[in-house]
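USER: Study each token:
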Amino acid sequence: MNVKIPIVGIVVACIAVAGVGAYFLMKPGPEGGEGAPQAEAVTLYISESLTDNSTVLIWSQSAAADFASYTVYQSTSSGALGDQIATITDATTIALTVTGLSPNTTYYFTVRVNRTGGTYEDSNQVSVKTLQEGEEPPSWTIEGVVIPGGYCDSEVVELPDGGYRMYYGLDPRTYPENINIVSAVSSDGLNWTPEPGTRLPEEPRAAMPSVIELPDGRWRMYYNSSGGIQSAISDDGLNFQAEGLRLADYDDINRVGPTVIRLDDGRYRMYYCEGPTQPTVIGNAEGEQQPIWPDNIKSAISSDGLSWEIESGIRIDGTKPLFYGMFTNMIGTPDIVKISDGSFQLYFLAGSPEMDEKGVDGIYRAESADGLNFSNMTFLFGKYVDEEGREIITADPSVVKIEGGWRIYYASDCGPYSTGISSAVRGPI
């Protein structure tokens, strides 16, 4: 089942203007007030809806009181503003289908917010390379549930002798008194055999595992437990001994959802979510009060994997809405991947209270040359209907390289319960 959906959960209509299709929101965003976006440059994203002659752009809505229009620019040179391809005077129009592009060509796009007083702000610039002529668009194909039951927060690692081990959590909705981390093994990544016991029996309420193989062959797990992000060590990847607190919560801020990668210089970088323990209350599109938990994805650096130094800045800013009128209710469970050209890709879930009652929109990807400055936020896939007719919500991505492409494991939810850990596959990224 292909699930390439450029915008999920938004009612849109499309018109064609000089070769450009503009998607218009049919539900207006909020009029401002506490919690509304600040008047600043919009954030530009790209969708995976890509052909040999078109692409889709998505941006957050400007909240400028003196908004006049958006101007969309297209260039074939990085850093150059290029040609104006569309002017949009409706502030609630936050997506654009650009057509008439040439095959196998890299384009650069910018969205400018024009104000009535003559000032303006430019968005970040994103790059898109069109497909070769006749090439099929890339897509994620849903493979279905691979581990059924009340589970979430999967982390998949390759084993030295071949095959895979998945670490995953017991969903607290299903196991409220028995939260811990369990595991399963597989030779092909699709057929999994659960392993007996829990990986951290002495650590009640351990959750959100990230596991990395160390140079000496041991395994270190980072996970959430009381007080913040903890770590544990294991000789065999099954029996872990707690090592203590690595990054502590502070004041009313939680640090959760670690993912760790070993860098070429031997250091380790951890990406994690940081957000308030109490929600911010905003007014939604219907004027109702809506709680949100605006998280950020941040990072820390370590020479030994035990002592961590917080790095300055924010890797993914969750305080900005992905879609205006649909404030970010959740951004989290990141997974970092280094690809063959040496750059990094960060996968994460993002959601908003407008999308559905669970506040989960879907899975996104961001790209970075240095692992610190991320751009090209790309929506991969979100809700879909499975073979049993259930609407499935996707979250908690874990990405592994496979022959000829990539596989994402993710928590698949249906209404108030989890259907288990599912997977999707696609060709080269």
Q: What stands out?
A: The domain at 146-336+394-426 is CATH 2.115.10.20 (Tachylectin-2; Chain A).
